[in-house]
Every structure is written in structure tokens, then in C-alpha cells.
Amino acid sequence: MWGAPFSSQSRKLLLLGSGELGKEVIIEAQRLGVETVAVDRYADAPAMGVAHRSHVIDMLDAEALKKLIRAEKPDLIVPEIEAIATHALQELEEEGFLVVPTARAARLTMDREGIRRLAAEELGLPTADYRFADSLDELRQAVEILGTPCVIKPIMSSSGKGQSICRKPEDAESCWNTALEGARAKGTRVIVEAFVTFESEITLLTVRSVSGTVFCPPIGHIQKDGDYVESWQPHHMSAAQLAEAEGIARAVTDQLGGFGIFGVELFLTDHGVLFSEVSPRPHDTGMVTMVTQDLSEFALHVRAILGFPLDPVHLLSPGASATLKAETAGQAFRVTGIGEALALPRTQVRVFGKPEIRPGRRMAVALSAAEDVEIARTAAKQAASMLKVEVIEDEQ
Ligand SMILES: Nc1ncnc2c1ncn2[C@@H]1O[C@H](COP(=O)(O)OP(=O)(O)OP(=O)(O)O)[C@@H](O)[C@H]1O
Ligand SMILES: NCC(=O)N[C@@H]1O[C@H](COP(=O)([O-])[O-])[C@@H](O)[C@H]1O
Ligand SMILES: [Mg+2]
């Protein structure tokens, strides 16, 4: 259907962001004979090791981004992180490039303000109460209005970076400083959200393709310090809750448009399902689908964005994932315990191959399948606890 990689007729995919999620996207694209180009802000990023070639640029630099893309001329531009100069993507889209799912979706979801205003104010979807603040004074006012506890996050960040809980009004200043330090891009704007007491939280993977919209079975997860540590699929919820969740996911993904997978994050509460945020790309909690579904979230994304049809998703087995995170910073380290973890039943490990560690950085994930979600969770957690990031002292 298309030429070999490197030939004039090849189909070329350029990935913006080359972490653990992008690595799996590239592998799936390679399986369909696509030529792949991985881009990130640092060398030797996980997806770079499996792509045909790679580039290191500052993806928030609009000029650098446009120059690279005009030179590469990819058939598909696939954002893998949110911190990208999305106005440059809009310009490129106007020139005829295809941005996944659309440049507008990338722009709206790159910052929490765009997507929150769209979901809550335009679509009227239920969310936590929120305010935005550009200074410590404004933050104090927002905290007063919303009350404590509340959650404060930079508008552009992910994996919980810069996020903190303000437990009493006096905490506002330290939360402000945490947000400034953790923000992905320069800028001071933060979102303040009322604290949601949820019974559980889920990711509803939603795929838009030529075959319409399909939902994956819901994925339950646990987050620590704003970053995921454990996920499982399926998450048990009532038929009414699932219908509510799918209604929200459909409304928001229809609005964003385009083809591809979306990770719709939702809180399940006593008062109904609340929308939290959405990623227009594979989701970290969705790594579990590598052991649960016939097509993983990465395979689904690649199929959808290439314009191929999709069957409804089949859950082959319940399963769970648990993460390994580094605790210190450095470059001399090794991941140990892989053999022990793999000795557990129906367990796999993905070691991402990131070149450096820093506190809280996700380095690997353990994946377990089992006849029951609880058994899978226990196995995945046990496997992850066997994995260690061992610092090599004499090389530091
Ligand atoms: N308003 C809130 N009330 C209670 N808990 C919250 C609230 N907002 C966020 N959290 C908790 O923090 C987690 C991370 O929040 P959020 O998804 O907004 O951050 P993120 O940095 O975008 O994370 P990721 O990139 O991993 O999705 C949530 O999954 C939830 O556990
Ligand atoms: N919650 C979003 C998420 O999990 N994104 C994944 O983490 C990578 C960045 O990791 P790093 O910060 O360790 O480089 C991203 O490239 C993506 O694969
Ligand atoms: Mg999130």
C-alpha cells in the first residue's frame, strides 16, 4: 500500500515527544511498515532507540519545530507530550500537514485552561470548581473562594509536576512556588481546583477512527503526588456510571475531533462522574492494555491515525500495571530485579531505557495479567517492588 521506509513512496510518521508511550507508538507504526522519526528535547529518549531516525530540538521553539517539519515533510505529525509550540502546529496544518488528532486539539489540551474552559464552559460537562491565577495574590484570592483543601497545578505540566495540595490558606505561597518550579514552560499561570473526594478515578480510552468511536473497558488507577503508580483494567463500575462516563468522553472527543486515541480522565464520586482532563494521545495508565487487550492503546492509536478500520476492542484478560520510579538524580545506574519480576506468573516488564534518572522519574513498568483484577494488581505491584534503580556509586 505504501513504499518501504526511506523510499520516495514511504508513509512517514514524526513523533513529537519520545518517551515510553511514544516508544510503543513507534513499534506499532514499524509493524505496519511506516517510516518513523522520533523527536524530543534530549538525546537517546526511549522512542529514539526504535525509530528510523531522530532529532533533538526544543519543541517549544516554534521556529525550530517548523524548520524541522518542513524539512522532514512527514505524512503524520504525532504529538506525544503536551509541551509543544502548538501555534506552530496550527500553521503547519494550514500548510497541509496532518497533525494528530488535529492542531486545535493539541492546542486546547496543551494547557489546562484551554481544555477546562472547553469542557466546563462550552460543553457544560461536570468538573471540580476552578479558578486561574497569575500571581500569588490572585492565587490567595482563588484559594479563599474555593476553600481548602484545593489542588494547585501549573497550566502546562504533566505527571503531577508542580502540583500540590493547599491544605490551609497559609500554604498558598509554598504551592505557588512548587507550581513555578514544576511548570513545563516559562509562565506563571496556575489552575486552582476544588479538592474532589472521589471513590475512584478512571481513564476511559476513547478511539475515534473511520469506524466511529469505540471505548476501551475502563481503567482504574491510583496516583501518588499527581503521578500514576498503579492501574488496572477493567475497573468495576455500575452500568449507569459507565454510561455517564462514556457520555462525557464522547462529548469531549467529538468536540476535539480528528482520528486517534484519547485518554479521558474522570473522577467517580457520590454525586456523579466528573471530567478531569483528556490527553489526545495514548495515556500512561493505559500501558496496562499491552497485557489486557487484543490491540493495545498504541496499536489502536496507530491504526486510527493511519485511517484504518477498527473492531470493537476485546479484553483478553483482566490485568494491572505498576511503575518503577527513580529516587535520585544521575546518569550512572542500572535497573535490577528484572529476572525476579519476570518469574511471577503472566508478568511482563517494560524498561524504558531513559538515559538519566531524577527523583520521581518513571523508568519501567510491570504488567501482569490474571483471571481477576485483584490478583493481577497484587502480581504487578509485587513485580514492580522487585525492580530497583541501583545507583552505581563509583561512576557518579
Ligand atoms: N481537583 C482534584 N481533586 C482531587 N484530586 C485531584 C484533583 N486534581 C488532580 N487530582 C489528583 O492528581 C492526579 C493528577 O492530576 P492531573 O491529571 O490533573 O495532573 P497531570 O499532571 O496532568 O497528570 P498526568 O499527566 O499524569 O495525567 C489526578 O489523577 C488525581 O489523582
Ligand atoms: N503523564 C504523561 C506521561 O506519562 N508521558 C510520558 O512520559 C514521558 C516523559 O517522561 P520524562 O519526564 O521521564 O522524560 C513522555 O514522553 C510520555 O511518554
Ligand atoms: Mg492526569
UniProtKB/TrEMBL annotation:
Binding site for Mg(2+): E265, E277
Binding positions for ATP per the UniProt entry: R112, K153, S158, S159, G160, K161, G162, Q163, E193, A194, F195, V196, E201
One Pfam family in the UniProt entry: PurT_C
Pathway membership: Purine metabolism; IMP biosynthesis via de novo pathway; N(2)-formyl-N(1)-(5-phospho-D-ribosyl)glycinamide from N(1)-(5-phospho-D-ribosyl)glycinamide (formate route): step 1/1
Annotated GO CC locations: cytosol
Entry-linked Gene3D superfamilies: 3.40.50.20, ATP-grasp fold, A domain, ATP-grasp fold, B domain
Reported function: Involved in the de novo purine biosynthesis. Catalyzes the transfer of formate to 5-phospho-ribosyl-glycinamide (GAR), producing 5-phospho-ribosyl-N-formylglycinamide (FGAR). Formate is provided by PurU via hydrolysis of 10-formyl-tetrahydrofolate.
Designated name of the protein: Formate-dependent phosphoribosylglycinamide formyltransferase
Taxonomic source organism: Paenibacillus graminis
